[in-house]
Each structure stands twice: as C-alpha cells, then as structure tokens.
Design brief:
Length: 389
C-alpha cells in the first residue's frame, strides 16, 4: 500500500499548495508551465516536503518532453547514459528530474554538464542543500535556481484537511494546531501524522496527535546551510549581548541534534575573538564548559552550555585579539621573514656571541621598571601597531 503522501500527491497546479512566490500568477515558473514548453534547466532548492518532486511532475505533465525521474542516491553514469540514449531515440529533449542532486559527486555532475549545455537534457535538480555548496559552478551557472520555502501554516492546514477527508476522518481545532506545529512546513510529515492518527480513530484530536508524534523533529542539516545559519545566529546574538536570543539558539542547536562539543568549540572561539581581554575570564569559563560536556555528557551538560551562552552574551566585548591576528598576518605576508634583532637572539655558542647574538641584551628583571626598552620587533616594523587594545 502506497503512503498517503503519494496517494494524495497533487497532479495539477490547482491542487498544489504553497510556493506562491514561484507559481503565482505572472511568476516566471508559472509562465513556463502555462505555456507548456520544456523549461530551461532548473534547480529546486528547499526543505523536504515542500513540493519539489510534485512540481517537477506537474511540469512534466504539461510539456511534450520525454520525462525521466532519477534519484542521485542510487543512480550513476550508467543511468544517465540511458537518459541520453532515450533522447537519441526520440529526437526530443529529455526532461530529467534528478532528486537529491547534491548526492552526485563532482565527476558525475561533470558527466551531466555537456548534455545540459547542448540541450540534450533539460534538468530539474532537487536538493535540500545550498546549491552553492553542493553543485558544480559550471552546472549551477547553467541552471536557474528556485528557492522553495517551508509551507505556510495555511497550506499545511489545507493539506491536513484534504487528507482527513480522503480518510473519512475529522480533525479538531487543537489537533489541527498541533499538526501544523509538528509538520514544521513539511507536507509529507503532516500527511504521515494524519495517516497514523486516522488509524487510531476517526476523530483526530490533539491528544491523538501527541500520541503518534511525541516530539517534532526540528529541521536541521548538520553539514548544510541550516547548520551555518544557526551557528551564525548564536554567534551574532552573543556579539550583540542578547542573552535571550543566545540561549535560544544554543538550545535550538542542541535540540536539533548538533554535537555539543561543536557548539562549545565555537563558543570558546567567541570567548577569544569577541570578548578577549575585555573579560579574560570568559575563555576560562568556556574551557570549563568544554570540560563539563566531556566529563558529564548530555543531556546534563546542556545547563553548562546555556550558562556559557549567557555569560558570553553579558560579557564586555573586545575584538582586539582577532584584529591583531589579521594585522600580523597581513604584515608578515607583505614583509616576509624579517630577521630577528640580534639583541634578542639566543647565544648558546661562542661563535654566535662573536656574531653579536644577544649583545647588549638587558634582563627585564634587572630593570628598575621590570620592562627593558630594547629592540624586539624587526627593524622595519619598529613603528607598527598590531594589538590595539
């Protein structure tokens, strides 16, 4: 028996919910569909369950192109060659829907490129990952990227209602709200919840929904864009001294399944990069949180991570060390390996002493002020300021 999500998959734009920014009246993608012509190569980018596969199939149904659907999970060059051979037999453009195109490695994407370039294949590649990370630049430049958004609550409610009608079930208001929250903009997830709930009883209530879906699985791609979006949100919230937002983003990452060691590692970096000597204790607090994560483990170490997030957000800020690194690297790149002044060179042999190594060196502890004034930087950098506290 096919899953409900497949049984109720829309077959026309009239049945399709969401993505008005792509298929609304007057939008470029809608124009292609209405004209019934084979579109140029495209990339559909967005979270799961937002209609990428469905829209590709609707486009195929509205054109005269020979349609082939592959998944990059189990397809390779052999399957792509079959698509090319199909085009040679039909002498018409093949509309290829390649799901999870980000799973294709560089060689496989390069193999596809010339057929996209010469029009043998009109490609619709679907991906949940940021194409700029996962798709070759050459293929990316020859394809129009369309961003699919998580479905709005109104679209999810309509999908849930349609599914309940198809199953002969009713949905209470509290169940509708619960499923909308749990779906998190994912139609497939919403349909799975409806299907499971309807198997238990005809009236789907909030309690039934909670029974079949105890906790929403937050959208998160540990190696993709959302991963970087969330860590950026945490970093910038702490930098802006927003305690509430810092705690939220830290817990959001942990709840989504992020490695707590990664979160603390980035916060330890923040303690040096953004707090620095404005509060030297910050880096020690970060190291202590790291030890707590290692020694105590999860979930108990969550409190140490939240404590650290709040501490770093409230701490005074200085990026002097971060800026000093950049200045020093730039100076070194521009000036190369300047010689160490002889006065501060070590002189363990007589020969080195004869060469003037260490000559005139003043031991700082013998200086009245405890800070001997002698040449420390290379001669060419005597007036250079690197660390500006």
């Amino acid at each position: 028996m096919a899953p409900l999500a497949d049984d109720l998959r829309p077959e026309s734009l009239d049945e399709f919910e969401g993505q008005e920014q792509l298929i609304g009246e007057g939008k470029p993608l809608r124009k292609f569909i209405d004209r019934g012509v084979t579109p140029p190569s495209m990339l559909f980018w967005g979270p799961p369950g937002t209609g990428k596969t469905t829209l590709a199939r609707i486009i195929a149904s509205e054109t005269d192109a020979a349609f082939t659907e592959l998944s990059a999970v189990d397809a390779g060059k052999k399957e792509l060659q079959k698509v090319v051979n199909k085009q040679r037999l039909t002498q018409s453009t093949v509309l290829l829907f390649l799901d999870e195109i980000h799973r294709f490695h560089k060689g496989q994407q390069d193999y596809l490129l010339p057929y996209v370039e010469d029009g043998t294949i009109s490609l619709i590649g679907a991906t949940t990952e940021n194409p700029s990370f996962e798709v070759n630049n050459a293929l990316l430049s020859r394809s129009q990227t369309y961003r699919f958004d998580p479905l709005a609550d109104e679209a999810v409610v309509q999908i849930v209602s349609n599914a309940a009608d198809a199953l002969g079930a009713t949905v209470t208001d509290d169940a509708e709200g619960a499923m909308t929250t749990l779906a998190d903009g994912d139609a497939r997830r919403a349909l799975n919840i409806v299907e499971l709930a309807a198997e238990m009883q005809d009236e789907i209530t909030g309690d039934i929904v909670e029974t079949v879906a105890q906790e929403s699985t937050l959208r998160y791609d540990k190696d993709g864009e959302e991963h970087y979006n969330l860590i950026s949100a945490l970093h910038k919230s702490m930098r802006d001294s927003d305690v509430q937002a810092s705690v939220y983003w830290a817990v959001r990452m942990l709840k989504a399944g992020e490695d707590p060691k990664y979160v603390v590692r980035r916060m330890l970096r923040f303690a040096s990069e953004d707090v620095g000597n404005a509060d030297p204790q910050a880096i020690q607090v970060a190291v202590a949180a790291k030890e707590a994560v290692t020694f105590v483990g999860m979930p108990e170490a969550k409190t140490a991570i939240v404590q650290l997030a709040a501490y770093l957000a409230e701490a005074p800020k200085s990026n002097a060390a971060y800026e000093a690194v950049k200045r020093a690297e730039q100076v070194i790149e521009e000036t190369g390996a300047l010689p160490v002044p002889k006065v501060i060179r070590n002189a363990p042999t007589d020969f080195m002493k004869e060469e003037g190594y260490g000559e005139g060196y003043t031991y700082a502890h013998d200086d009245a002020d405890g800070a001997a004034e002698q040449q420390q930087l290379p001669h060419a950098l005597q007036t250079t300021t690197l660390f500006d506290a």
